[in-house]
Amino acid sequence: MTIRVVVADDQALVRGGFRLIIDARDDLEVVGEAADGQHAVRLVGQLRPDVVLMDVRMPVMDGIDATRAIVASGSAARVLVVTTFDLDEHVLSALRAGASGFLLKDIRPAELAEAVRVVARGDALLAPTVTRRMLDRFAHTTDPPAPAALAGLSPREREVLTLIGQALSNSEIALRLHLSEATVKTHVSAVLRKLGLRDRVHAVVAAYDHGLVEPRRG
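Structure tokens predicted for Transcriptional regulatory protein LiaR (218 residues):
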């Protein structure tokens, strides 16, 4: 099954480059391009893509508001924010708006294609070279902890959420807790369901929001 992609960026050269990379893969296809966020929202409603590659800074409507509008519309499309700066202050807002992750524009073609596949299948990702710095910065912008929101989690699920917040993968969590990866995956799914989270990125956000993880110092 072909993964349908909409590319939203105000630079025609960037859009064209992404199209070349994506259309070169047999399982990927660019079905639309938008030069601003408002157009991107409209295209998502019309074309029903699986993934949106979303620039942050665009005219008319920026990528954050566009992401928020797409998520609020109930669209199944997954938004992958693509930014020039690894600590763009808007990335944090984009994640809160419902983006499934972010990448840097200097990503290699093969990595971009794989990122599209990852988010299309329901997983989420953050650029690996900047994940920890982004999370540390995010921790300074969170609201006060709300532990009551975690009341529905079992002790083990709460433990798993804490480790997700530390940017550990399922295999790393399995090793840490002496569990099988299948069991960890079940716990992760339960955490997402119980907290009403879209994906793993938002589980990381929740871990910080609820005070389960603190930023590194120094």
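Residues 3-129 form a domain with the Rossmann fold fold (CATH 3.40.50.2300).
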